[in-house]
Amino acid sequence: MIPNNDDENWQPLESNPEVMNQQAAIIGIKPEEAQFQDLLGFEDWAFDMIGKPVYGVIFNFPIKPDTENFVQAEFEKIQQEGQQISPNVFYMKQVAKNACGSIAIAHVALNHPHLIAEDSALDKFRKETNGLTPEQSGQLFKQAAQLKHAHVEAVVQGDSQCVDEVDRHFIAFVLIDGSIYELDGVKAFPINHGASNQEDFLKDATTIIKKWFERDPEEVSFSTVILAKPPAE
Questions:
Q1: Which of 206, 198, 205 has its CA nearest to residue 176?
Q2: N or C: lower Cβ tally within 10 Å for the chain?
Q3: Number of C-beta neighbours around residue 7 at 10 A
Q4: Beta bridge partners of 174
Q5: CA 145, CA 143: separation in Å to the nearest integer?
Q6: Inter-residue contact 100 to 5 (CB < 8 Å)
């Protein structure tokens, strides 16, 4: 799940909304338009605490021995049955080791470009990736000094001890053209999880996430963070 590029280890991020918001502001996500918020549960009371609209869901989960088996089975099923991917979905591959947190943040913002400040690091990256393949975009992300610097700053701000090897992974979910897409830079392509709408997006996304819980019912270290309009004071 984590690219083995020992010469380009970005170090792992924490699933921490406060730190993620600092990073988001540095790279160009407008704080008045969108902020990261912890999702405290998968019930209506927790959904009601999140600002509206919801732009994306970032899910952090532990990598287990059977993770690759599931990914391979999913890949083979899609290869056999096919899927529809909107041309409006922005997707890039993860190239740098441990960059998945920043990739997830970027995936959400780049699929909602109105959230990105003009001439910011993320805006420049968005313009430079126009017409590139997911692989080329991933390489460009790896080489983007401002984006890497913001990632490193976020790692330093986190509470966890900095380590080279991690067994966790970040992915993003966005709603584009009426479908929920899972954006995971180490998978072969985006995953279309089916129809939804803005009103039901958060609830539907958590229904998808629950499948991770079902595959590993003893695990308790999952984390879900939402990028949404800041809640009213």
A1: 198
A2: C
A3: 6
A4: 181
A5: 6
A6: no
Point out the catalytic residue in the list 114, 149, 169, 193: 169
Cis ω for the linkage preceding 53 (within 30 of 0): yes
Which tokens hold the place of 134?
């997911």
Of the residues 100, 107, 112, 151, only one is catalytic, namely 100
Task: Tell me which H or E stretch contains 224.
Answer: strand 223-228
DSSP code string of 37-105: EE---SSHHHHTTS-SSEEEEEEEEE--TTHHHHHHHHHHHHHHH-----TT-------SBT-HHHHHH
- To the query of whether residue 100 is one of the catalytic residues in this protein, the response is yes
Quote the CA–CA distance of 137 and 92 in Å, as a whole number.
Answer: 6
State the virtual CA torsion across 148, 141, 30, 14 in degrees, nearest 10.
-50
Whether residue 222 contacts residue 212, with contact meaning beta carbons closer than 8 Å, is answered with yes
- For residue 45, how many other CB atoms are within 10 A of its CB? 8
- 149 has catalytic annotation: no
- Per-residue pLDDT tens, the chain, 233 aa: give them: 445 444 478 888 889 999 999 999 999 999 999 999 999 999 999 999 999 999 999 999 998 887 888 889 999 999 999 999 999 999 999 999 999 999 999 999 999 999 999 999 999 999 999 999 999 999 999 999 999 999 998 888 765 554 445 588 999 999 999 999 999 999 999 999 999 999 999 999 999 999 999 888 888 889 999 999 998 76
Q: DSSP code of 226?
A: E
